[in-house]
Amino acid sequence: MRILLLVDCSRSMWDKWQSDSKIKVTQKVLLHFLDSLPEKGGAELAMRVFGHLNQNSYGTRLECPFEPNNRYQLQSKIKTLVPNGGCTAATALDGAVGDFPAGDSSRNVIFVITDGKSGGSNICEVARKIQLSGRVVKTFIFNIAANANHGNALDCAGEVIQIADEERFAGELQTLFHTVRTESRVVVTLTNEAGEVFSGDVPVVFYDRQNSKPVYTKVYYGGPKSKPDTVTVDPLISYDVEVFTRPSIVFKNRTFKPDRVYTLASAVEEGRLCVRREDKRVVWSVPDYQVVVRQSGKADLTGVQGLGDSVKYLEGIYDIEILSMPPIAINNVEIRRDAVTELAIPAPGMLMFERMKARKQVSVFELRDGRMQLVREFVPNPAGENLILMPGDYILIIKPLGKNPKATTTTTAQIQSGKQTVAKID
Predict the structure, then answer these.
(1) Rounded to whole angstroms, how far apart are CA atoms 86 and 13?
(2) Is CB count within 10 Å lower at the N or C end of the chain?
(3) For residue range 328-362, what is the model confidence (pLDDT) as tens digits?
């Protein structure tokens, strides 16, 4: 684990606060904090300072890089800090990502210590850049002198900790150091309305809410003899947790502090959906149509299954679309817990285009409720071609290629389930 101390040395740090100036109090607290760290098994620390260079240089500098056993160097540099102004926290943060060694999996954290008066107008943009980099787990901002107005301006840059006095300053540093070194345990429990444990197995994904990247993936195993699955997570991250039932269950913006066991519980009631085709013996190959399932009234896809498949969905109302030609829509289908909802669609028929003397463009329309619905436009193979269509009444508009539109003709065709119909094209 690595912690970067980002220390404010703007001119306002000379202002009086508690027993001394803000910078003197900060030096005292940081020195005591470093003395309290364990010799082994702690964390690597580094320090970047802003506002301590020449006032006109508008600069920030990494004063102590990450190195093992660098406590003495850190303490020596802290003692020499002199506020000068001429820089903002945003500028310092922009350079902070590069202070962490590249190419390893260490948990990287930034502790910003500031009085909040030198944040910078672009600090939100810089903070977003840090979040998307994926190299820093979290940024904490110690807003000393507890100026709430300035603290609110820093909210977008990280988790702001309001520091009203010296004692709390020291205590919050120690508490946060313990937190960032500890992991949390989360128990994922899925039950039904009766409190019975959900029986089945589904993937569970923990996403980092800052950048929407998956951080932990688990498979939940449930059943009468199963114990709830425990996931060990980073307490610094805010998570969106998704349980991949159909549709998925999402727990938004969850945080998990150390030294506790959290339970994510959600009532899961599932039923099954099975869509079948009427059994008709035919001499041609019948397509295995895909069945698209959505929650009623919603555009997001819930599931896709094949004909004859029996698939679990959460109890509710769904809109079903069978991708036949033309498609079949069945809306407001109710799926009940512990039951199988079965739907049947007719077997298709065949529209046969026999050998033609010349190539022609054919537009196939279904006549439905007195209106024409376009099904397909194509140029049949002159040697003969077949279309597999659902039963119904169809209108065909035929136009010889390259000829006057006046040569267009129209004919009808009735498709019956499991039967062949010849298209009458001159």
Answers:
(1) 12
(2) C
(3) 999 999 999 889 999 999 999 999 998 888 888 99
Residues 315 and 356 in one domain: no
Backbone torsion region of residue 61, taken as left when φ is above 0, otherwise alpha when ψ lies between -120 and 50, otherwise beta: beta
Question: CB under 8 Å to 40, separation ≥6 — which residues?
Answer: none
- CA 366 to chain centroid, in Å, comes to 41
In this prediction the pTM is 0.71
Overall domain count for the chain? 4
Secondary structure of residue 123 in the 3-state scheme = helix
Please check whether residues 36 and 86 belong to one and the same domain: yes
330 class by beta-carbon count within 10 Å (0-12 exposed, 13-18 middle, 19+ buried): middle
Nearest of 238, 288, 242 to residue 266 by alpha carbon:
242
Contact 113, 142 (CB under 8 A): yes
* pLDDT tens digits for range 38-55: 776 668 999 999 988 866
Domain boundary among 238, 267, 296: 267
**Nearest residue to 182 via CA among 141, 139, 235, 131:** 235
Distances (CA, A) of 16 to 163, 169, 254, 373: 15, 16, 39, 79
* Domain span including residue 418: 349-422
Q: What is the pLDDT of residue 34?
A: 92
Q: What is the C-alpha separation between 349 and 280, in angstroms, rounded?
A: 10
> Domain check: are 232 and 148 in the same one?
no
Residues 143 and 12 grouped into a single domain: yes
User: Of the candidates 180, 208, 236, which is a domain's last residue?
Assistant: 180
Residues 24 and 93 in one domain: yes
Q: In terms of Cα–Cα distance, which of 271, 270, 246, 268 is closest to 340?
A: 271
Contact by Cβ (8 Å): 52, 60:
no
Residue with the larger pLDDT of the pair 363 and 158 = 363
